[in-house]
């Protein structure tokens, strides 16, 4: 994956710089609303905004868009800051839209004084009824003709708390017949008695997103205000407000496509619903597409940044296949994860020609991608475990794993041949009796015979059992949001998204530290849960399998 791709926003900025706009400055911002935890879509926005600032030697602010106190909380503010930093970025300045509440209020009075805003007594329902529809012009509010004096008086009394919630709004006076519904006298302020996580009860009127956003951009000196495509239709209002207010500077809005990913939903509202309903175990459940969930699952910031860079930035919306994200972490963990052997679904193998109690210590490579990771000793004993799935009683022709009479190699050890299959009363295989060939050490086969299968294994006497959580897609379908009207999107949840089990692992893994990455050879990448692990009691979370196990389940359209 390349480092930093060129994309259309670069062209836009280059054009501005060529015209000498903004004295050559580039200043972006990442503007989350603190009403939930960030998800991977936000990671894209963070990488784009901070990435552009870095590229142009500019600045990037973190701004909390905290204009809707009923949904916002300090917990979200804290988690957002932690997530941005974890991704590897540091903001130049930290602002809250609420830092500008007084200035925004003054801007409201300014619009009134210039005949560009009025206080309206229509209810929310009436306002939307009067607004008309895309193909139908709106109808003017009967309060539209109030005098400047009356409007100023009412707006001041709104602020002073003289009116009940929802009984009045401040609206921009633009054009009820505009083809763009956003210009049909949009609401700028509403009355809402809600405790704000920063300003407490100082305000009972709050600016709407559209009124706050562009003005905050201007006040912070933002040059390029990057947002997602759904704001394209808000742009004329963004520009109208900037033009009609005495703002210190004129920022420019640029829209890009939202990130969409298969097998998940990316909307804070829906993710909150999953958390509140207990469908997942909190915002940082490793199945969640939140940055905190992805982090807890063992993804690295390097992998997430590589993913964001790889998918690029475009105006056209597209859905990225989940496997692209998984390949990003595979690439990264392939380089950094220590190899070990672990058996998830064990079957006992007795190697007849090894004496009971005998231990042979063999060398195993810790990371073939990183020679400095060195080697470790693993124990070969009379009884070992292999994966149940690595044995077939009736083996098809091209089956290179273990079967009666067949020979396979135990990774880092010798070749074994299956001599006898022992079963319990129900006919279930409980033990394989094998012999090993002492001439087959160090990957050699003395007579040049071919042994294709190499199996992972652990010594039965020198292993420990550890808890393991196997995660899979949270949703069973590619596009969980695509449900017919009236159908709950949650019906698409994958009932097998979490399997709690245990594994037999090399004894040294008992001491695996929280937050370390492992490759269980042939099985997958695992992460020692930073939350539920204790010293000498690691809990292993599967970050990802080694290959895309879903690919073969899907009918591909190409
Ligand atoms: P959600 O719908 O998930 O709540 P949002 O757009 O309401 O998302 P904000 O907190 O307002 O969330 O978003 C902060 C910034 O992140 C905005 O600039 C927004 O455009 C951007 N953003 C949000 N979701 C995505 C996404 N899926 N892809 C790219 N950028 C996104
Ligand atoms: Mg939003």
Q: What would your notes on this structure say?
A:
The protein is an alpha/beta fold. The chain has helices at residues 8-18, 40-55, 74-86, 101-113, 124-130, 148-160, 209-220, 235-244, 268-276, 291-296, 301-311, 322-336; strands at residues 27-30, 59-64, 94-96, 117-120, 169-172, 187-191, 205-207, 224-228, 252-256, 260-261, 319-320, 338-340, 342-343, 346-351, 360-365, 375-380, 383-387, 407-410, 415-423, 429-437, 454-455, 457-459, 463-471, 498-506, 517-520, 524-528, 540-545. The strands form 7 sheets. It has a 7-stranded mixed beta sheet with strand order 12-25-26-27-23-24-13, with helices on one face. A 7-stranded mixed beta sheet has the order 21-18-19-20-14-17-22, with no helix packed on it. A 4-stranded antiparallel beta sheet has the order 4-5-6-7. α2 (40-55) crosses α11 (301-311) and α7 (209-220) packs across α8 (235-244). Mean pLDDT is 95; it is low at 554-558. It binds adenosine-5'-triphosphate and magnesium ion. Adenosine-5'-triphosphate (ATP) binds at residues 31-33, 41-42, 44-45, 227-228, 258-259, 266-268.
């Amino acid at each position: 994956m390349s480092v930093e791709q060129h994309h259309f926003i670069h062209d836009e900025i280059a054009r501005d710089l060529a015209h000498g706009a903004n004295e050559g400055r580039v200043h972006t911002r990442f503007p989350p609303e603190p009403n939930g935890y960030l998800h991977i879509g936000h990671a894209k926005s963070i990488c784009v905004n901070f990435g552009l600032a870095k590229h142009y030697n500019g600045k990037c602010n973190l701004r909390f868009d905290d204009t809707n106190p009923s949904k916002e909380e300090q917990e979200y503010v804290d988690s957002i800051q932690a997530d941005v930093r974890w991704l590897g970025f540091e903001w130049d300045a930290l602002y809250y839209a609420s830092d500008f509440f007084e200035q925004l209020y003054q801007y409201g009075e300014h619009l009134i004084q210039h005949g560009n805003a009025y206080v309206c007594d229509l209810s929310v329902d009436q306002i939307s009824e009067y607004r008309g529809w895309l193909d139908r012009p709106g109808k003017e509010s009967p309060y539209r003709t109030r005098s400047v004096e009356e409007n100023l008086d009412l707006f001041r009394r709104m602020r002073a708390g003289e009116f009940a919630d929802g009984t009045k709004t401040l609206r921009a006076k633009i054009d009820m017949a505009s083809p763009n519904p956003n210009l049909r006298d949009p609401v700028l302020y509403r009355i809402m008695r809600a405790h704000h996580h920063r300003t407490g009860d100082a305000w009972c009127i709050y600016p709407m997103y559209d009124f706050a956003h562009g003005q905050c951009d201007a006040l912070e000196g933002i040059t390029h205000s990057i947002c997602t495509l759904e704001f394209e239709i808000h742009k004329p209002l963004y520009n109208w407000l900037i033009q009609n207010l005495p703002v210190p500077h004129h920022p420019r809005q640029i829209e890009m496509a939202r990130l969409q990913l298969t097998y998940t939903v990316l909307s804070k509202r829906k993710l909150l619903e999953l958390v509140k309903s207990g469908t997942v175990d909190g915002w940082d459940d490793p199945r969640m597409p939140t940055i905190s969930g992805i982090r807890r699952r063992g993804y690295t910031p390097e992998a997430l940044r590589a993913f964001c860079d790889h998918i690029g930035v475009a105006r056209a919306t597209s859905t990225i296949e989940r496997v692209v994200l998984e390949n990003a972490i595979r690439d990264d963990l392939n380089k950094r994860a220590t190899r070990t052997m672990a058996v998830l679904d064990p079957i006992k193998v007795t190697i007849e020609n090894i004496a009971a109690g005998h231990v042979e210590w063999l060398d195993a490579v810790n990371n073939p991608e990183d020679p400095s990771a060195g080697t470790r000793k693993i124990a070969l004993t009379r009884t070992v475990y292999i994966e149940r799935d690595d044995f077939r009683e009736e083996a098809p022709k091209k089956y290179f794993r273990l079967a009666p009479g067949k020979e396979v190699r135990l990774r880092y050890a010798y070749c074994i041949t299956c001599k006898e299959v022992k079963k319990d009363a129900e006919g279930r295989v409980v033990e394989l009796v094998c012999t090993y060939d002492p001439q087959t050490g160090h990957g050699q086969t003395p007579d040049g015979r071919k042994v294709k299968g190499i199996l992972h294994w652990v010594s039965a006497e020198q292993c420990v059992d550890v808890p393991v959580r196997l995660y899979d897609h949270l949703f069973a379908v590619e596009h969980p949001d695509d449900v017919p009207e009236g159908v709950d999107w949650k019906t698409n949840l994958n009932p097998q998204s979490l399997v709690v089990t245990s594994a037999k692992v090399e004894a040294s893994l008992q001491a695996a530290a929280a937050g370390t990455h492992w490759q269980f050879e042939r099985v997958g990448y695992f992460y020692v849960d930073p939350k539920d692990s204790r010293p000498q009691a690691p809990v292993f979370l599967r970050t990802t399998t080694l290959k895309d196990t879903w690919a073969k389940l899907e009918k591909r359209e190409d």
